[in-house]
Design brief:
The protein has 267 residues and is of the alpha+beta class. Helices cover 48% and strands 22% of the residues.
């Protein structure tokens, strides 16, 4: 007999429901088994749902990544375009500002240095001097070059370098060794170099340049002098010395004679 747990009525052994209150008739073991089965079913359902969800997430993830990467690329492109536009606008404004608010550099080439500096002062520009050697007398003291071209624009108090010509007084020493004294003097005169002559006994012919005090090819100032060592033949020098000694002898004889004459007069 099965007793109904609700109304406690007696029922047959194989009855599933109470004949009096229609309650479900199950043993405790059956209830436990049924509950466990229900739990297992629920767990399986939850697992299936989670698997389904993960599958759906995995399917959606690449699409979301594609969308996010496309959006980031599009955003970067837009930002680049905006930056280019802003840079263009800034350059236009800067160009107009430069054209309207800067100073036009005057042309001072050909002016004297004093005249050129006066013009630059009037234009509110600074200046500095640079010299350049020139052999043209017309360029001496004159501005032959300026660092910024005439007509260009620059800011106030910008420094303009003025290149001023100064006369080149340097000369190149020619090679006169081995020349005759006459040819050497002619060559030095043409080069504008002053000279001094010193004689030295030598086996060379007379009046040959043995040595020059400044080597050839060197540049010197045209006020500097060069010393030429000129050969003097030994025979000529001895002849000259003999002549000088004879002259001295004659003088002594003459002197001596003059003394004799004086003695005779005294006697």
């Amino acid at each position: 007999m099965r007793i109904c747990p609700v109304c406690h009525a007696e029922n047959e052994d194989d009855a599933l429901y109470c004949k009096k209150c229609a309650s479900y008739l199950l043993d405790d073991d059956d209830k436990k088994n049924k509950k466990e089965k229900n739990k297992v079913k629920k767990q399986k359902k939850v697992k299936n749902k989670t698997k389904h969800k993960t599958k759906v997430k995995n399917k959606r993830a690449p699409r979301e990544r594609q969308k996010s990467s496309f959006f980031s690329k599009f955003l970067a492109f837009v930002l680049i375009i905006i930056a280019i536009v802003l840079a263009g606008i800034a350059s236009v404004f800067a160009y107009h500002y430069y054209q309207e608010n800067n100073i036009v550099v005057p042309d001072v080439v050909g002016y004297s240095y004093d005249e050129a500096t006066a013009v630059l002062k009037e234009a509110k520009l600074s200046y500095q001097q640079k010299t350049k050697l020139t052999t043209d007398p017309e360029e001496v003291g004159v501005v032959v070059k300026q660092s910024k071209r005439a007509g260009s624009k620059t800011h106030e108090n910008a420094v303009i370098t003025l290149t001023v010509g100064i006369l080149d007084t340097t000369v190149t020493v020619p090679d006169v060794e081995g020349m005759s004294l006459e040819d050497a003097i002619s060559t030095l005169n043409q080069a504008g170099i002053s000279y001094q002559v010193v004689y030295e006994e030598s086996d060379e012919d007379n009046n040959i340049i043995l040595e020059q005090s400044i080597r050839s090819g060197k540049k010197i100032d045209n006020t500097e002098s060069i010393t030429l060592t000129v050969s003097m033949n030994k025979d000529n020098s001895s002849t000259t010395n003999n002549n000088n000694s004879n002259t001295n002898t004659n003088d002594s004889n003459t002197t001596t004679d003059s003394s004799d004459v004086g003695d005779e007069d005294n006697q």
